[in-house]
Design brief:
alpha/beta; Purple Acid Phosphatase, chain A, domain 2; seven-stranded mixed β-sheet; six-stranded mixed β-sheet; 10 helices; 27% helix; disordered C terminus; binds fe (ii) ion
């Protein structure tokens, strides 16, 4: 990976990779996980990503955890610079055929959250990346414990870089509003999200919170309550192995944070993934509410969730800053 010629720092976000060598096709195309991830990582290297951030559920860990770890190691072995946080699939607890979160963290101690640490902090050019562990062992939903909050606060305070980005697995705010899915609130959100939002929104150089877990693609502006203009973007990225089959490239350009979606180039993947996801639990939930026709669009997002420039400057009006679509 080489530095972008225009000097702007470029970082990639790949989450919910579900790497496995023994995967069966479900709503996630686990049987094609390795070839899909190989292709996506190749594209990100070719696009000059200086660091790839893996956002949790990096391995599938559903019966062949050790083999999944080996497959993930093979994937990242060609990357000079990468970091990761755990997801709920790495934190599913001690069960036959699964590795524990501590095992995962020890294996990649130099590239992510160590067992004895609540997070990691890594500078890439003019960007400070702070990774936090949002997992609750054995539960799908997220939580940031007191030592994680303290670590986050201290690292944000100490950061001297122009831009700060925070990486976690779970969402801070829902992307399913105005619809109400109580089980999704429990399964996908950080339970004490307001505490995390308070820390992130306090420092105007925090540009984005990067997350995954929901296998959908969405960018949401999160404002500090009562302080219009103080806030950051929640950048929710889909999985490369499930529809909408996506990873992201983030360029910290002078005029704003440029975000692009990168998709697998392999023949048939998008069609296969689209058909698979329509048979899943999430699609059934939408069907119960009479929202079937909206489901694929919900997962994929719009242009402003995929190719967009997010302005850095805080606005002085009470209206939240809106992403504007990139000219592409
Ligand atoms: Fe997850």
């Amino acid at each position: 990976m080489r530095k972008a010629t225009d000097g702007a720092t470029k970082i990639a976000h790949v989450t919910d990779a579900h790497t496995t060598m023994d995967g069966q096709p479900t709503t996630v195309l686990k049987h094609r996980a390795v070839e899909i991830l190989d292709d996506v990582v190749d594209q990100l290297i070719a696009r000059d990503a200086e660091c790839i951030l893996f956002g949790g559920d990096n391995i599938d860990n559903r019966g062949a955890g050790e083999r999944d770890l080996i497959a993930f190691e093979g994937l990242v072995s060609r990357l000079p610079n990468w970091r990761c946080v755990p997801g709920n699939h790495e934190a599913s607890g001690p069960k036959p055929g699964r590795i524990t979160k501590a095992q995962f963290q020890r294996r990649f101690a130099d590239h992510g959250v160590r067992p004895e640490a609540p997070g990691f902090s890594h500078a890439i050019g003019d960007v400070r990346v702070i990774g936090i562990d949002t997992t609750l062992v054995g539960a799908p939903g997220g939580f940031v414990p007191p030592d994680g909050l303290a670590y986050l606060a201290a690292e944000i305070e100490a950061a001297t870089e122009t831009h700060i980005v925070v990486l976690g697995h779970h969402l801070l705010v829902p992307c399913w509003t105005p619809h109400r899915f109580d089980t999704w609130d429990q399964d996908y959100l950080v339970r004490n999200a307001n505490e995390v939002i308070g820390l992130l929104a306090r420092q105007p150089r925090v540009r984005a919170y990067l997350c995954g877990h929901h296998h959908a693609h969405r960018i949401t502006r999160v404002e500090r309550r009562g302080r219009a203009g103080f806030g950051f973007y929640q950048v929710l990225t889909g999985s490369p192995v499930a529809f909408p089959h996506a990873a992201r490239l983030l360029t910290f350009a002078p005029g704003g944070l440029e975000i692009e979606t990168v998709r697998p180039r392999l023949a048939g993947v998008l069609d296969e993934g689209r058909q698979a996801v329509l048979l899943g639990r999430k699609a059934r939930r939408f069907a119960e509410l009479g929202l079937s026709s909206y489901f694929l669009g919900y997962l994929e997002g719009t242009t402003s969730d995929n190719h967009v420039v997010l302005p850095y400057a805080k606005r002085r009006t009470r209206r939240a800053a809106q992403p504007r679509a990139a000219n592409r």
